[in-house]
Design brief:
806 residues, alpha+beta, seven-stranded mixed beta sheet, six-stranded antiparallel beta sheet, 29% strand
């Protein structure tokens, strides 16, 4: 929010520099994101009095003798049509800096340094300046918009710096307002804080006005949507004279980024910036039915706003109507059918409180925003609604642009705008702060913040102003006290449950980092997805209606429908990542993510959900297969010092014959498999995706288990290859387990080939394994190895009915 120092001084006697005030605002909780010096780029420009002015023959130029006071008298060449002897204009001395303008004399192209030069053979020691060359426009200073020299007041003293004369010695504070302090999104709101931090009085803007006896007979206001419009005020003004606003108002609006339009419109904009209350003025002659009605729009109803955009509305939008039609999009923008024109003679002023969520949603849904909608979205209080109307009527009289009638209509839902009482314990407040703040300091601070405090023993009673809706309980009071008392008074202390550590990562963090390094070494890139998915993702996975994954937490205010539920699985996002890459021409890749899935204990929520740390992996490409995914799972197991076993299973979104559960000590901890053809069609994938999910919460109990070191064998290992004919339904893991069980010398079993053919017989397949035998304390002999092979074959035949392939 922009707050000019000169405007703040209207309410507070500020006796410190802008830089000092910036520090004080920061100390009490307001970050000055930028402190802007008006006229920062302009230097060396003083008042110049033209003593002589002679035309240069056959040119539009004049050679002038310019008195610059204590700086001397100089000859300056000038081409402006309004240069004349006796006139006083800004003169940039040699070495001064001003803005360089384009040929249109309006567009600023940068900063230039004035040098001594010659024009048409005449020496020129400086430059007489226009308003544009000083960074001014007509709103910032009268006459600055003229395409010629900027004329200074006749009483200006030659040689004086022009900045104070032109208001270029001002400062603008760009203040970041936190979401809980909507009362400070105005000049007056910041002035209250400045007064408190400087321990000065804050003057209230003038609110007095004189209403005539004139009444607009029969005029009425009805509010059909009091839940989103709890207070609406309308006041009739007549004998309106539309004209330019005074220079002081134009300048202030320009400093906060608003251009002047006309006196009546400028008043509404001025009050929005001064008090934080958006207002609107209707040309009463265009209001039909002698009435204002605030209601929800009808579905399909249309309105054209002041910027000539037409919108089709729904019943979630709030509109201001006359007796016949909508004339404004509430809280966002007025209608084109009731705008203030040069011919306007009657005005109906509006000041209202609209629900912030309704305005925010309507603005977003319609794609229409304004300063008003931004302010309403942050919060506007009913207290300022009434104050703003009084201020507007005062300015109408002060500017002489109309007469205030007695027709004042207010409709509200009964909310009080009087201060509300709040009690708190001094001891509880000090416990929050961890220090003891003297009662005298508490009284001084809360008094400066307009809380009218009273202390009786340990009980503190305050009166919370209606504009401080952020005040809810004693911790809020503690915050108000400490931000003014000074955070430097807080003594750093440990929490009661704190422990002194050497820092570093905990076991879980170390293990997850180890997993990431392992997967990166396998050529898998890390990805990060939102924690939200779409309800349609469950349909993509073809989950039955009673599937636990569908028991998901729905967001109250989602970004959009595609991010409206908390994820219970990473599978949809992994599959979507594979599909997205393939659509963009990337036909191979490996991606992993370690993130949380969210499983509610019950719905609607009564407690925090279970957050399961989950490892998700997806791979796709011509060289990828179910077995490469299994290899990645095995790499994960090895990094954790575990042994995964696998059992065939089915999942609705995976290939029925290429899906397996992952088990540790008989407990299912995850799954892996190949995407089904149906999922591939839905996602328009050219190649299948291979997916793995592992619940790391279930593996956490194995983290940090001691690693057993096995020394390298002293003697040579032996390898044997076996090819078995087995039933198609036979699982690889069952054969591997049986081989390892049959011989204590077996340290590794790898499947390296699977073959199916008619010569093997129906429902049969060939599986080839490489088996590694590792010696213990003695060298292998042929007889020992052959004996172990026979034990393995005997065990396979007896327990699984498997024989060697002929």
């Amino acid at each position: 929010m922009l707050a000019p120092l000169s405007w703040l001084k209207d309410y507070v006697d500020i006796d410190c520099s802008a830089l000092e005030l910036q520090e004080k605002l920061f100390s009490c909780g307001f970050e000055v994101e930028e402190l802007i010096e008006v006229g920062k780029d302009i230097t060396g420009v003083v008042v110049g009095e033209v003593l002589e002015c002679e035309p240069i023959p056959e040119t539009h130029l004049h050679v002038c003798k310019v008195n610059a006071g204590e700086h001397g008298t100089f000859q300056v060449c000038c081409g402006a049509d309004n240069v004349r002897a006796g006139g006083k204009f800004p003169v940039a001395l040699v070495g001064a800096q001003v803005y360089a303008t384009a040929k249109d004399h309006v567009t600023i192209e940068g900063v230039m340094t004035i040098k001594k030069g010659k024009l048409r053979g005449y020496e020129s020691e400086g430059m007489l300046c226009s308003g544009t060359e000083l960074g001014l426009n007509e709103d910032l200073y009268p006459g600055a918009g003229y395409n010629g020299l900027l004329e200074l007041p006749a009483d200006s003293v030659a040689g004086e710096d022009v900045k104070p004369i032109l208001g270029m010695d001002d400062w603008i504070f760009d203040i970041g307002i936190t979401a809980n302090r909507a009362d400070c999104q105005s000049i007056y709101g910041i002035a209250r804080e400045v007064a408190a931090v400087l321990k000065k009085e804050c003057k209230e803007p003038a609110l007095d006005y004189n209403a005539t006896d004139v009444v607009k007979e029969g005029f009425s206001v009805t509010v059909d949507a009091k839940d989103i419009c709890p207070r609406y005020i309308a006041h009739y003004v007549y004998d309106v004279n539309i004209a330019q606003s005074p220079a002081w108002m134009k300048r202030r609006l320009a400093l906060v980024g608003i251009g002047s339009i006309s006196n009546v419109v400028d008043i509404t904009n001025y009050i929005m910036k001064e008090l934080g209350q958006p207002m609107h003025a209707f040309d009463y002659s265009y209001l039909e039915g002698n009435a204002i009605k605030v209601r929800r729009a009808n579905n399909g109803e249309k309105i054209t706003t002041l910027d000539e955009k037409e919108f089709t509305l729904t019943d979630s939008n709030l509109v201001i109507c006359d007796g016949v039609k909508p004339v404004a999009l509430a809280g966002i923008m007025g209608g084109l059918n009731s705008e203030i024109l040069d011919t306007t003679t009657e005005v109906m002023f509006e000041a209202a409180k609209f629900a912030r969520d309704n305005i925010r949603k309507s603005s977003r849904a319609l794609g229409q925003s304004s300063d008003s909608s931004a302010m309403y979205a942050k919060g506007v209080y009913e207290y300022t609604t009434e104050m703003a109307m009084k201020r507007a009527l005062h300015l109408i009289e002060e500017l002489g642009c109309g007469k205030v009638s007695s027709t004042h209509v207010e409709v509200n839902s009964g909310n009080s705008i009087e201060p509300k009482e709040m009690k708190a314990s001094i001891e509880a407040i000090n416990q929050v702060l961890g220090i003891t703040v003297p009662n005298k300091a508490i009284l001084e601070i809360l008094t400066s913040l307009n809380f009218a405090p009273v202390i009786d023993g340990d009980e503190l009673t305050i009166q919370v102003p209606a504009y401080r809706e952020d005040m809810d309980s004693y911790p809020d009071i503690a915050e108000e006290i400490i931000r003014m008392y000074g955070y430097e008074h807080i003594i750093p202390t440990f929490m009661p449950t704190a422990e002194t550590t050497l820092g570093g990562l905990n076991l879980k963090q170390k293990t997850e980092a180890k997993l990431k390094r392992t997967l990166c070494a396998q050529g898998v890139c890390e990805g990060i997805h939102y924690s939200f998915i779409s309800p349609s993702d469950f349909d993509l996975l073809r989950l039955p209606e009673d599937h636990p994954w569908r028991n998901a937490i729905r967001l109250i205010n989602p970004i959009n429908i595609d991010l409206s539920v908390m994820r219970t699985t990473l599978a949809p996002q992994l599959l979507a990542a594979a599909a997205r890459n393939q659509k963009r021409g990337n036909l191979e890749g490996r991606v992993f993510e370690i993130g949380n899935s969210f499983v509610p204990k019950s719905l609607p929520l009564t407690d925090y959900p279970q957050e399961n740390a989950t490892l998700g992996i997806v791979a796709f490409g011509e060289e990828e297969s179910f077995f490469t995914m299994k290899g990645l799972a095995m790499a994960v197991a090895d990094s954790l010092g575990l042994t995964f076993t696998y059992e065939a299973s089915t999942r609705t979104f995976l290939h029925p014959y290429q899906t397996a559960d992952i088990l540790v000590d008989g407990e299912v901890v995850g799954y892996l498999g190949t995407s089904s053809y149906e999922v591939m069609d839905d996602l328009d994938m050219r190649l299948p995706a291979y997916v793995c999910e592992i619940n790391l919460n279930l593996l956490e109990k194995y983290y940090g288990a001691p690693v057993k070191f096995n020394p390298l064998p002293k003697y040579a290992i032996e390898k044997r290859d076996f090819a078995f004919v087995v039933d198609k339904a036979m699982a690889c893991a069952a054969i591997e387990d049986e081989i390892k069980k049959a011989s204590t010398y077996v340290t590794e079993v790898k499947l390296f080939d699977v073959y199916e053919g008619i010569q093997l017989g129906p429902n049969k397949k060939s599986m080839a394994f490489n088996v590694v035998f590792t010696p213990k304390d003695e060298e292998f002999t042929t007889e020992l190895i052959e004996g172990q092979v026979k034990k393995i074959l005997k065990g396979l035949d007896k327990n699984l009915g498997i024989t060697l392939r002929a």
